Amino acid sequence: MDAAALAVVGILLLICYFIKPATPGSACKPPEAGGGWPLIGHLHLFGGSGQPLHETLGALADKYGPIFSIRIGVHPAVVVSSWELAKECFTTHDVALSSRPKFTAAKLLTYDYASFAFAAYGDFWREMHKITVSELLSARRLELLQGIRDSEVQSALKEVYRAWEEKRGGLVVEMKQWFGDTSLNVILWMVAGTRYCVSSVDDEEKVRRVRKVMREFFHLLGLLVVGDAIPFLGWLDLGGEVKRMKKTAIEMDIIVSEWLEEHRQRRESGESETKTEQDFIDVLLSALDGLDGYDAGTVIKATCSTLIAAATDTTSVTMTWALSLLLNNRNVLRKVQDELDVQVGKERLVNESDINKLVYLQAVVKETMRLYPASPLPGPREFTKDCTLGGYHIQAGTRFILNAWKLQRDPGVWPDPLEFQPEKFLTTHKDVDVKGKHFELLPFGAGRRSCPGISFGLQMTLLALATFLQAFEITTPNNAQVDMSVTVGLTVIKTTPLEVLVKPRLPYQLLSMDETKENSAH
């Protein structure tokens, strides 16, 4: 055999060694998106492109298909953007996809993963998820707490009317703050048995402080830091995010520790036994002795801080986008108010028992969640075992990213996918809901790790919108279009304030503040 032949044989042997043939049952990996850099992979896409990440990943899906891979530093990740693959993920592979990766924000802000929302899938997660759903978010508990939601929303509404009276018309209301404060008071009452009535300078300062900490808490939970992607650079804090996380964690701990201590003191004095309805902290104090190495107090603080921040943020974000879309589509706004006039009338305030009759408003909220899901990239997950997804092999340890924003704008599913058209949910898509069973619409995610507060979020959003739109005629200053630019964290919020001019559309008697009645409701 001559030298040339030997060289050819050598090359073939090397090829056989380094490129192994596929074995039966094996599959190739998903295509990797171009543009990855040495060491950091595609980390530069996470905040460095100037474009929201869900839009960047959506553009990559147009190029590489509904499943592709990226590298987040040393961590491989797969991005899914079609309902067919989402269905496969949350049915066939749901158990394998029910764990969370570890990352700095969750470690620092949730007491080293003591919040079940960011805990690994296992006994601790199952136990805390079961307690939270049954004792706070079940249909039975939500029905028992309906009066709280009705009274809080109506109280917030009457505060607006009182301000309108004092100003003698021409009142501008910043709706992001109004929705946020209203949602915060409702979930605070359900979880901690407290509220801020803003009747004094001290209460107003407390509201401002709590609202700011909650917003920062939830925003930071959506940030990826350098050490999450490249562990050996974890000592770096280039943007100061880790410092902010530590500061916010301390501030949040001060707030929830105060609530917890108040509950413990009432419990020790026997005062809590006389309460007609226990709040969630009361329930947890009775149910927990410590789980999975955490003491009960740590679990209570981690769970309650996450629940309050998440419920306040996601519901107020959705309400804000819904009202923004209505103000930019005045014909739809008129239809919503016409429906309220027909189904409820103007002789009484709408309440939660009316919501089932408001089918057009429900369609508006669904369409809002389709176009502007509060979490366009639902919380991070990772595969805990090897899987075959869409014909591709996915290794255990791979991060999973669902691009709900892209999935919900699929022209193959949604005609005119970029247009705001609530009517589709009364006709062609009337049987599609948002609860994780219809994979073309997943604003709350799906599977075991879907948002447990779906029912609360929907009820709160529909009630607050219905009440405000029944009570007031609204427009924007100078009749301008609403700016729809976004700021991204764990949720996608409207960047600029949402200022609206309000004018009462109900009789004076319904909107005037009855202090005695309002106070007795709490």
Compute the separation of the termini in Å. 95 Å
User: Strand-residue fraction?
Assistant: 5-15%
Described by strand count, sense and barrel closure, the largest sheet is: 4 strands, mixed
Do you know the CATH topology? Cytochrome p450
Please, what is the CATH homologous superfamily? Cytochrome P450
- Count of DSSP H/I helices: 19
Report the structural category.
alpha+beta
The residue fraction in helices comes out at 40-55%
Low-confidence stretches: 1-26, 515-522
Task: Report the strand count.
Answer: 11
Task: Write down the domain tally.
Answer: 1
Q: Mean pLDDT across all residues, rounded?
A: 89
Rg over CA atoms: 25 Å
CATH class identity = Mainly Alpha
Order of helices and strands: HHEEHHHHHEHHHHHHHHEEEEHHEEEEHH
Strand order of the largest sheet: 1-2-7-4
Shape: globular
Instruction: Tell me the CATH architecture.
Output: Orthogonal Bundle
Q: What labels describe this entry?
A:
522 residues, Cytochrome p450, four-stranded mixed beta sheet, 11 strands, globular, disordered C terminus
Description:
This protein has 522 residues and is α+β, with helices and mostly antiparallel strands. It has one domain: Cytochrome P450 (Cytochrome p450, Orthogonal Bundle), CATH 1.10.630. Helix content is 49%, strand content 8%. The protein has 19 helices and 11 strands. It has helices at residues 3-18, 53-64, 83-90, 104-109, 123-137, 139-144, 146-167, 175-192, 201-220, 226-229, 241-269, 280-287, 296-327, 330-343, 359-371, 404-407, 454-471, 508-511, 515-520; strands at 67-72, 75-80, 171-174, 381-382, 387-389, 392-394, 399-402, 472-475, 486-488, 492-494, 499-504. It has a 4-stranded mixed β-sheet, with helices on one face. It is globular, with a radius of gyration of 25 Å. The model is unreliable at 1-26 and 515-522 (pLDDT under 50).
